[in-house]
């Protein structure tokens, strides 16, 4: 099985970007922990990041038929019908992840276009959320969610 971890705009700057909110973990650290989590489950990891909405749409298309997508759409979470439609279009299981607790932040971060098409949502747990999402997708091999 393959898991696609897809990261949206500005997440390439993790480590230096607003460390009071996002911490010092870099995207390379997140890739490494995602790879380790996938290896524990015998899964193949495809890891990507883009600052461009259309490229993120294409990354979701490329995940068709995979075990699932772990999606941190970053700011596009709050704006993108296209990303939500892509998840529905390919019918892939998606787990929405945010490093920060978006509900403890500005009101504009409280709405997500992704949540209603996601199998689950994890936020506020930092990079640990990615590991938890991968563990959940791995578990779904045995007990598929409805
Ligand atoms: C984020 C939360 C979003 O509101 C924000 O735009 C981001 C990162 C997070 O991981 O906490 O860029 O998705």
UniProtKB/TrEMBL annotation:
Pathway of action: Metabolic intermediate biosynthesis; chorismate biosynthesis; chorismate from D-erythrose 4-phosphate and phosphoenolpyruvate: step 3/7
GO biological process terms held by the UniProt record: amino acid biosynthetic process; aromatic amino acid family biosynthetic process; chorismate biosynthetic process; quinate catabolic process
Top EC category: lyase
SUPFAM superfamilies named among the record's database cross-references: Type II 3-dehydroquinate dehydratase (SSF52304)
Binding, substrate: 72, 78, 85, 99-100, 109
GO molecular function, one term: 3-dehydroquinate dehydratase activity
Enzyme Commission number(s) from the entry: 4.2.1.10
Site (Transition state stabilizer) location in chain: 17
Catalytic activity: 3-dehydroquinate = 3-dehydroshikimate + H2O
InterPro entries: DHquinase_II, DHquinase_II_CS, DHquinase_II_sf
Keywords: Amino-acid biosynthesis, Aromatic amino acid biosynthesis, Lyase
Active site: 22 (proton acceptor), 98 (proton donor)
Recorded family membership: Belongs to the type-II 3-dehydroquinase family.
Subunit structure: Homododecamer.
Function of the protein: Catalyzes a trans-dehydration via an enolate intermediate.
Protein name, as recorded: 3-dehydroquinate dehydratase
Organism of this sequence: Ancylobacter defluvii
Gene (UniProt): aroQ2
């Amino acid at each position: 099985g393959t898991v696609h971890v897809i990261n949206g705009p500005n997440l390439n700057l993790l480590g230096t970007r607003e460390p009071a909110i996002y911490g010092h973990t870099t995207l390379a650290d997140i890739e490494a922990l995602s790879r380790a989590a996938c290896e524990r489950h015998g899964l193949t990891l495809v890891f990507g990041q883009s600052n461009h909405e259309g490229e993120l749409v294409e990354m979701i298309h490329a995940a068709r038929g995979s075990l699932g997508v772990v999606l941190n759409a970053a700011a596009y979470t709050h704006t993108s019908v296209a990303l939500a439609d892509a998840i529905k279009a390919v019918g892939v299981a998606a787990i929405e992840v945010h490093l920060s607790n978006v509900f403890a932040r500005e009101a504009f971060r409280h709405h997500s276009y992704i949540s209603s098409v996601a199998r689950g949502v994890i936020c506020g747990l930092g990079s640990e959320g990615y590991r938890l999402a991968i563990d959940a997708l791995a578990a779904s091999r045995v007990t598929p969610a409805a």
